[in-house]
Amino acid sequence: DAGVIQSPRHEVTEMGQEVTLRCKPISGHDYLFWYRQTMMRGLELLIYFNNNVPIDDSGMPEDRFSAKMPNASFSTLKIQPSEPRDSAVYFCASSLPVSPSIHEQFFGPGTRLTVL
Amino acid sequence: QKEVEQNSGPLSVPEGAIASLNCTYSDRGSQSFFWYRQYSGKSPELIMFIYSNGDKEDGRFTAQLNKASQYVSLLIRDSQPSDSATYLCAVNDRGSTLGRLYFGRGTQLTVWP
Fold first, then answer.
1. Which of A50, A102, A108 sits opposite B32 (nearest CB)?
2. What CA–CA distances, in Å, run from A89 to A16, A80, B1?
3. Residue-wise pLDDT tens digits, B57-78
4. Across the interface, which of B42, B46, B105 has its CB nearest the CB of A106?
5. A8, A92, B36 from A19: Cα distances, Å
6. pLDDT, tens digit, for every residue of A56-74?
């Protein structure tokens, strides 16, 4: 399997611009997660989906952030308008239960976002 | 909010030594525990998970779980410079949100030749 695929790998944009990050989960995985990682705050969960339905978006920092999962093989995270404090590495991850109480979660390579 | 605590380090050990990484968690009902390795500039990579009290071995890695003490650890035997990375401990949520993981801030490990 190709693993979790994210695009773009790097994004440099100017403050106020719209940014769209894309993710293709591992085929067959029914959970999809969006994380943000910074030195200051570590790895933060932004939102996650189960069977394409958003389960918990309490980690989304502001209304400027939105996420969608129109089908089982694609998700987007959009920031509009972007701000310099949004600069971070954004990871997408997907998981599948290996037992009722164990979900192995696998990460994509990440998108490094820089907002000038 | 469930808490997962790790020593931030850095932890520095010589090549060939045993590296011991520790993690505590706040939710006594947590059921499964994961260790991820993250090289600088890369994404977290799953090393192993454990869900029963005691030890679980996988090659040079041993995960140890003590649910009574709410403590999980990762031992790396015969440490190699290639083990130098940040190690993240993660704990699952439970109930209807079982798929979610709570991550610690990570412990930075340096193995020097």
1. A102
2. 18, 17, 23
3. 999 999 999 999 999 999 999 9
4. B46
5. 10, 15, 28
6. 999 998 899 999 999 999 9
